[in-house]
């Protein structure tokens, strides 16, 4: 991992934050993006090494993100070697309450923008001519269903499918594209879900993970593997890091 330059979208909390700190310990140079500048500044202070950068950008502001990435590479002249797309939102709504706007918003942030950020990042000057690795954070819900999670499952299924098509399209440029699909890990997002359900439901969720609920570092280690040269012959893969959830 030493000396690779990685863009992390959704780096202010949860999996993205843990990944930033872990990759910095492995020698990566990082550029961190999400909306909350204060939280990103805090993540930078927890990272090892210097030269990390951050910018407060809403990922749905495609033009601002595009301009930032291009200006950043122009000013430092060091192209990126990889991407971690960890921005995501969750929604729990049964079909009868589901509105078009909710579907579009979740699909946009969780899947469409992952593809559009990749498009910007892979413009000639922005990305290493030696190739690199893109890692999208999907979910076990991308291949398994759950009641009231239609929008979320749809968005993660779309992300996983887009990843496979991109992997095939970009292989001749030595750019690998993979997903990590976590089961439930403790983050702000999952805490909101756990806080809103009964103790019995919490126990049920725990039981569905044979190795127990996961920690963000479990996901960060998988991401580091997919970004590193240790996975140089792996592309188009949805790596389930879920404590056995999807083995059942
Ligand atoms: N936690 C789990 O159990 C679990 C399981 C499976 C999959 N996942 C997936 O893992 C990813 C990370 O989730 P997490 O649990 O780490 O959630 P989290 O703690 O809520 O973090 C989500 C990140 O996304 C960023 N974000 C959200 N909307 C954004 C926007 N419009 N523009 C820019 N950044 C945005 C947030 O930053 P700002 O608020 O600063 O913008 C934050 O950094 C998500 O894709 C999620 O679906 C999580």
Q: What this model shows, in words?
A:
The chain is of the alpha/beta class and 248 residues long. It has one domain (5-187, 215-242): 3-Layer(aba) Sandwich (Rossmann fold), CATH 3.40.50.720. 44% of the residues lie in helices and 15% in strands. It is built from 8 helices and 7 strands, in the order βαβαβαβαβαβαααβ. The chain has helices spanning 14-25, 37-46, 62-76, 100-121, 150-170, 188-195, 199-207, 216-227, and strands spanning 5-9, 29-34, 53-56, 82-85, 132-137, 175-182, 238-241. Strands 3-2-1-4-5-6-7 form a 7-stranded parallel sheet, sandwiched between helices. Strand 1, helix 1 and strand 2 (29-34) form a beta-alpha-beta unit. The longest helix is centred in the middle third of the chain and has 22 residues, at 100-121. The protein is globular, with a radius of gyration of 17 Å. It starts with a strand and ends in a 7-residue tail after the last strand. The model has no long low-confidence stretch (mean pLDDT 96). NADP nicotinamide-adenine-dinucleotide phosphate binds next to helix 1, helix 4 and helix 6.
């Amino acid at each position: 991992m030493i000396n690779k330059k990685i863009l992390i979208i959704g780096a202010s909390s949860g999996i993205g934050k843990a990944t930033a700190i872990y990759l910095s310990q492995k020698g990566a140079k990082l550029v961190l993006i999400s909306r909350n500048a204060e939280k990103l500044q805090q993540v930078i202070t927890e990272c090892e090494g210097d030269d990390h950068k951050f910018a407060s950008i809403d990922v749905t502001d495609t033009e601002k993100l595009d301009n930032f990435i291009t200006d950043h590479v122009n000013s430092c002249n060091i192209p990126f070697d990889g991407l971690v797309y960890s921005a995501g939102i969750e929604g729990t709504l049964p079909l009868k309450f589901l509105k078009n706007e909710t579907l579009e918003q979740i699909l946009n942030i969780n899947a469409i923008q992952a593809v559009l950020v990749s498009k910007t990042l892979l413009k000639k000057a922005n990305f290493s001519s030696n190739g690199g690795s893109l890692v999208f954070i999907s979910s076990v819900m991308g291949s398994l269903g759950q009641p009231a999670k239609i929008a979320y499952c749809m968005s993660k299924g779309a992300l996983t499918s887009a990843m496979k098509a991109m992997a095939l399209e970009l292989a001749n440029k030595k750019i690998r594209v993979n997903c990590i699909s976590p089961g439930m890990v403790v983050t702000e997002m999952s805490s909101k879900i756990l806080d809103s359900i009964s103790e019995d439901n919490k126990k049920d969720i725990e039981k569905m993970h044979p190795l127990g609920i996961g920690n963000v570092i479990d996901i960060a280690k998988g991401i580091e593997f997919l970004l590193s040269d240790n996975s140089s012959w792996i592309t188009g893969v949805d790596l389930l890091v879920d404590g056995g959830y999807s083995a059942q």
